[in-house]
Amino acid sequence: MAEVTRVVACPLAQLPPGEVLRLDRAELRAPVSVFNVDGELYAIDDTCTHADESLSEGWVEDCAVECPRHASAFDLRTGQPSSPPAITPVRTHLVEVVDGDVVVEVGTPRPR
Ligand code: FES
């Protein structure tokens, strides 16, 4: 069974629509990024599955983030890449707002 780590990312007010927050915390085995797309929150592993690139530096369009290095786009809802060179999905994580804070349950996939 996958390990689950619950992380308070930030107050929701610090992550307005169009913004992304990269979480690189000691308790996480890998960085996680949280995106606010038109008021909807998405959390995925930050590192592209093709090479060591931060997806938080990418461009978001139509609920997908495009890797800044080779332009594979990952669906923020499923983690699936839509085009090569990346072929492996990134992990998605459950994210919710609790008492005004953005909370990520790292290790629990986003429900489909
Ligand atoms: S590093 Fe992301 S697509 Fe190559």
UniProtKB/TrEMBL annotation:
Pfam families: Rieske. InterPro entries: Rieske_2Fe-2S, Rieske_2Fe-2S_sf. GO terms for molecular function: 2 iron, 2 sulfur cluster binding; dioxygenase activity; metal ion binding; monooxygenase activity; oxidoreductase activity, acting on paired donors, with incorporation or reduction of molecular oxygen. Residues 7-104 form the Rieske domain. It comes from the Bacteria. PROSITE patterns: RIESKE. SUPFAM superfamilies: ISP domain. PANTHER family: 3-PHENYLPROPIONATE_CINNAMIC ACID DIOXYGENASE FERREDOXIN SUBUNIT, FERREDOXIN-RELATED. This is 3-phenylpropionate/trans-cinnamate dioxygenase ferredoxin subunit. It comes from Kineococcus aurantiacus. The lineage of its organism: Bacteria, Bacillati, Actinomycetota, Actinomycetes, Kineosporiales.
